[in-house]
Amino acid sequence: METLDRQIVALLTEDGRMSFADLGRRVGLSTSAVHQRVKRLEERGLITGYRAEVDYAAVGLPLTALISVVPFDPAAEDDIPQRLAHIPQIVSCWSVAGDENYVLLVRVPTPQDLEALIAEIREAGSCSTNTTVVLSTPWEGRTASVPG
Amino acid sequence: METLDRQIVALLTEDGRMSFADLGRRVGLSTSAVHQRVKRLEERGLITGYRAEVDYAAVGLPLTALISVVPFDPAAEDDIPQRLAHIPQIVSCWSVAGDENYVLLVRVPTPQDLEALIAEIREAGSCSTNTTVVLSTPWEGRTASVPG
DNA sequence: TGTGAAAAGTTAAGAGA
DNA sequence: TCTCTTAACTTTTCACA
């Protein structure tokens, strides 16, 4: 990946609504040249979308938790992600190496909602769970960059 | 939070570059009315920013891991987040209830980079670590919505 | 891949209900 | 808090280097 594209990606991960004119100024290209590059990055799938970032507490979802998941029957076919995909409170689902099969990141309004969600996950996923409540979030979703 | 604002937030978390004209059409308001509402949501801090989403593998960061962290000295003042904040590979840092104090989400190019990063975290944070490698990501950063 | 220019579309700010 | 208006800006496309 080229330096110029890396710069463009870095700028857009920090401000996803930056105009092509500003982007161009920052990387030293004309508006239409950055425009073409951004379109190419989107087409090639390096940029997969744009999202507004939200204050989850302000929006009614103050409780975050990490839930690790182990299937009841280790011999059964593992289609847990498909069986959990319809649950909107599950924000992220990672398949992991280690004692657990999956780690889920969930967001809910209240402890009661968390309790109900855990029951729902156990039932829908035929799995046991181990829940770790997030107390505070020093930071989240920071822009990662390639070292070197 | 009002239904209209909730709709606007939901639409912008799915497409952070949607134009105010389109947003207005989707929620049944004039362009300038949605515009005013979005600006107010930004001012009140409900919308905290906009980011491009990136295919991390394509961008040179194919390895994701979750690292849980326990300080060497449980009696010492806990300023681990400040001591780790300068490490750009740490994308998220959650303070958690349970056996560990923090869980970190990290992204690196190679297993060698992960090894070096773990050593750096142990040293900078004066902590022991327990690393869980992410094998695949069925989904991540999905839009959470308030139930009901 | 890049540039610059022009048409089409969008944002922002103000006046009025 | 909404709509309408208008000026300023941005995006998109195109011909050409």
**Quaternary structure state of the chains depicted:** homodimer
Query: Roughly how many Å apart are the termini of chain A?
Result: 13 Å
Number of strands of chain A: 5
**Total helical segments of chain A:** 5
Low-confidence stretches of chain A: none
State the helical fraction of chain A: 25-40%
Largest interface: A-B, 64 and 64 residues
- Walk across the major sheet of chain A and give the strand order: 3-4-2-5
Overall geometry of chain A: elongated
Major sheet characteristics of chain A: 4 strands, antiparallel
Mean pLDDT of chain A: 95
Task: Give the H and E element order of chain A.
Answer: HHHEEHEEHE
Strand proportion of chain A, as a percent range, falls in 25-35%
CA-atom Rg of chain A in angstroms = 20 Å
Structural class of chain A: alpha+beta
Write structural notes for this entry.
2 copies of one chain form a homodimer. Chain A has 5 helices and 5 strands; from the N terminus they run αααββαββαβ. The first copy, chain A, is of the alpha+beta class. Helix content of chain A is 36%, strand content 30%. In chain A, helix 2 packs across helix 3 (31-43). The mean pLDDT of chain A is 95. Chain A has a 4-stranded antiparallel β-sheet with strand order 3-4-2-5. Strand 5 (127-139) of chain A pairs antiparallel with strand 3 (90-96) of chain B, so a sheet runs across the interface. Chain B binds a DNA duplex (17 and 17 nucleotides) through residues 19-21, 29-33, 35-37, 39.
